[in-house]
Design goal:
351 residues, alpha/beta, Rossmann fold, Rna Polymerase Sigma Factor, Chain: A, 2 domains, two-stranded antiparallel ribbon, 12 strands, 20% strand
């Protein structure tokens, strides 16, 4: 399915006070609204994903999957700053007629949500039956549920947090240091900073997976090697794979946006902000997640009023939310079969 584009012709003011003219948002929809207009499933995507959720979340979203176009009207919008159809550092700056590159204004998770609210209004979606996302997608979902608590009926937060941790910021800053070590980042070309981006992705991957993941998937077949290890090849492959489909400028700005995430900003603290959520909420944590430790999801569960908590046991670490789709389906199915206040969900069994 091809990506559609929504153009907002007004002035889009960012949280910083800076402004964007001619905001464009790339988005995909699947299925159609039912008569009661109560079958909307809105997906917030993660850092380098796109709006084609059927492509990157197979097993959970698809014609034969739990979230399918026969039952649901599924919407996924590309985030601000990403190169997949939404205005980004590679877009043309109307003031200069040239790409923005490093002249693009910094933005926050709240700015991403503000843009997607405009899209929801354009699509005449008054109520979202299910809003969900993992990682940076979960950060967007939790913000939206606080900004518009009456619009969101059910909320699913996976491997995410209420505010980005010093640990997460440190990982992102290390990746940005890798990008800026590549002098071409400042050259003002679409492929500027590519070598730095490759290194940055290699760093990021260490936070997405875990010791156990590498021990199993990158283990050497014999004891005689002294170089060219599987783990080395894997890091190079994954770094180049991102370079082939993304750009250093979008990555730089989106990592900054992730760092900005703090729902307590301007709301008298995180716990006060969480108390504003009215949606029936499922929080899912991954036991082996290094980047978003499960304690962060347990914190959300304790402070969101109508919430349930589920633990996903996966050796894939943070990336488990993209891989363990069968277990996610079981958890989500169980969630919608039970009252949620103060519940712990263990896969198909409600404790």
């Amino acid at each position: 399915m091809s990506t559609q584009t929504f153009t907002y012709t007004g002035t889009f003011e960012l949280e910083s006070g800076q402004k964007l003219q001619g905001l464009e948002i790339g988005f995909n929809t699947y299925g159609s609204l039912n008569k009661n207009r109560d079958n909307v499933v809105w997906v917030c995507h993660a850092l380098t994903a796109n709006s084609d959720v059927f492509d990157w979340w197979k097993g959970l979203f698809g014609p034969e999957d739990h979230f399918n176009p026969d039952e649901h009207f599924i919407v996924c919008a590309n985030v601000l700053g990403s190169p997949y159809g939404t205005v980004s550092p590679l877009s043309i700056n109307p003031a200069t007629g040239q790409p923005y590159y490093l002249a693009f204004p910094e933005f926050t998770i709240r700015d991403i949500v503000k843009a997607h609210k405009l899209l929801a209004d354009h699509l005449e979606i008054e109520h979202i039956e299910i809003l969900l996302g993992g990682s940076l997608g979960g950060q967007q979902a939790i913000e939206w549920s606080i900004i518009e608590p009456d619009r969101i009926k059910n909320l699913i937060l996976i491997a995410t947090n209420s505010n980005h941790s010093p640990w997460g910021v440190a990982f992102n800053e290390s990746q940005r240091l890798a990008i800026t070590a590549d002098r071409t980042f400042y050259a003002g070309s679409p492929d500027g900073g590519s070598k730095g981006l490759k290194a940055a992705r290699s760093i990021a991957l260490l936070s997405y997976r875990s010791y156990k993941t590498y021990a199993i998937t990158q283990r050497e077949d014999d004891d005689n090697g002294t170089d060219n290890f599987k783990a080395s090849t894997y890091q190079n492959y994954q770094g180049q794979k991102l370079v082939n489909r993304f750009n250093a400028y979008s990555y730089w700005y989106l990592s900054k946006a992730m760092d900005s995430h703090n729902i307590g900003r301007g709301r008298h603290g995180v716990e006060k902000a969480l108390s504003l959520i009215k949606a029936r909420t499922l929080v899912i944590g991954i036991k082996s997640d290094v980047l978003f430790p499960i304690e962060e999801q347990q914190y959300l569960f304790r402070h969101i009023p109508k919430s349930a908590f589920a633990e996903l046991d996966s050796f894939y670490g943070h990336d488990g939310f993209l891989i363990e789709t069968e277990d996610l389906t079981n958890i989500i199915t169980s969630f919608f079969k039970t009252d949620v206040k103060g519940k712990i969900i263990e896969l198909q069994k409600i404790a």
